[in-house]
Queue: 3 jobs
Job 1
Amino acid sequence: MQIDVVGFYSPTRLVTFRYGGGSIVGRWRGDETPSSGPVHVELDVLDDCRWGEDIRVEQEGATEGIRPSGPGEDGFILVGRCLEVSYDDVLILSVLNSPLHIDTLGVAPTRTNGLPMSVRCARLEVSPENF
């Protein structure tokens, strides 16, 4: 996926980027400091997400992207379309045509494939592609 890097804080390895509707902060895992501007990366959700609490089915037409959580909440909201839930409870969510693999807890709904979903997560890691 391509993001737009707008800031990097070397002591903490935090990178600020824009992607699909907002400025997001994640921990940078690359060896080299990212330059400002467009960068191809992979995103990792660091926490297991719970069905019915962190993961919800959305209405058709929900705007895909990544945005900060609401006021007074930490983390981010990922909105995309479910490609599948694997046999080992990994949700594969397409966010603006980029697949993200998210470990899940609990019982998934009976029907998930193709449905719009939102996932609330506390932390993201950002890695250069093929890191």
Job 2
Amino acid sequence: MNKHAKMNQCCMKLVCNGCSLAARKRGIYDRCPFCRTPHPVDEASALVMIQKRVCKRDAEAIYHLGTKHFHGQLGLTNDVPRAVEMWTEAAELGSVEAHFMLGVAYYYGDGVEEDKPRGIQHWQEAAMKGHVISRHLLGIAEFNNENCALAVRHLMISAKMGHDKSLNNIKEMFMLGHATKAQYAEALRGYGDAAEEMKSHQREEAKGLGF
């Protein structure tokens, strides 16, 4: 999940921290800035909100509820098979985050039988839709398989999307002779450009206030 944003359970919209702060400045404290639904007061009401969206086959709600099953949150018992089942449904409906989590589950055998090719396939689906961590993990997987050229290609993309770990990995690969100086320089420039684009006065203010 984006560390600069929070998922609102009423409408499953991702609200950036800067926008949340702006809403508070407008006097919107206890409700969603998007749909104006009051925030849930407890876990039970939060679960009801999510389940309403699930009944409408909202991909993000199905993914979100699967994650709650995985972690045993909102009063649900820990149920990894159910989580994987829900992530699979959410992925089929277009949830990028569901593809990412299925990739993690299958690649590492986390709650399911390990199936690295299947995990890679889910990360590829997510990466093609702009999921930066999936792209980064594809790079790491290729490096572990000694496909250094392809690893660099993946990590270059995620570094240019502002992923600091990808940039550090390219630096390490350059020092080991697996990436060129030009590639590292290009990744460094791209990372800097992405970091600059993501800057926001409201976001920085929200961070300072602990959002």
Job 3
Amino acid sequence: MTTEHHPSRQATVSESQRLSNRYYDFGNTTVYAHAGDPRFSFTLYVPFQIKDSDCEINLVVVVHGTGRQFVDYRNAFADFGRWHNCLILCPLFPAGVMGDGNRDGFKHLVEQDVRYDKVLIDMVQEVGGRYGRTFDQFALFGYSGGGQFVNRFAYLYPERLWAATIGAPGSVTLLDAGKDYWVGTKGMAEKFGKRIDVEKLKEVPLQLVVGKFDTDTWEITHAPGSKFYMPGANDAGATRRERIESLRKSLEANGVSAQLDVVDNVSHRGLQVVKQVQEFFHKVLAAREKPKA
């Protein structure tokens, strides 16, 4: 019995696979489980020009808040990615990964044995490998709970960032070694096994962004006995506006400059400050692309 080969059929299958890959793996992609830990997922915007090896592609990571609107953020950044040659990575850190319904673990980078900072770094490596790119640095934006993530990630990994935007965090970690973590940074190196390099942090273009009318306090006031209460938990201010200003001052006191944008006609709505974030990233990219003298 002989085995017949059907080149035309093989070509059809190959073409079908090519079209499938083009449909799902470029532009606005499907949602992928993270290979390193399938409890976590991500979605992407991948510019088609990534297939040109001579085209430089930068990476922008956007971290959701408590509401997990990661696909909405991907969609909001897709045009930016297209016109700025940027791959957009939006991770999903689900609530309750330990089976306990906890919505807040990612905000503090660690939840029991999960290190969310390392999960993100592994995702970046996975995505780079998928598309034949190496992303040693990326821009990072997070809003609300995602803003807390960026605040703490930037302290630990400034060398990984070509820009960072901290958006309206409900709680802030001040750059203050005299205050215990999480209110300040005392003990942070011991907790995470990595010291804060303030000199490297000074090199990162930083933006702080908050809505002018982001004044609700019901969700962010730490009462004694509550999950994240510790001495000084509310000292940075009552509102997100007050707390982000306290963060700015603590950065400034350490020689770290940050652009503060207070957006008019906005309360606590992350998608409504995307324009200001993209303008900031555009400015940073333009400065990076200027030829060196």
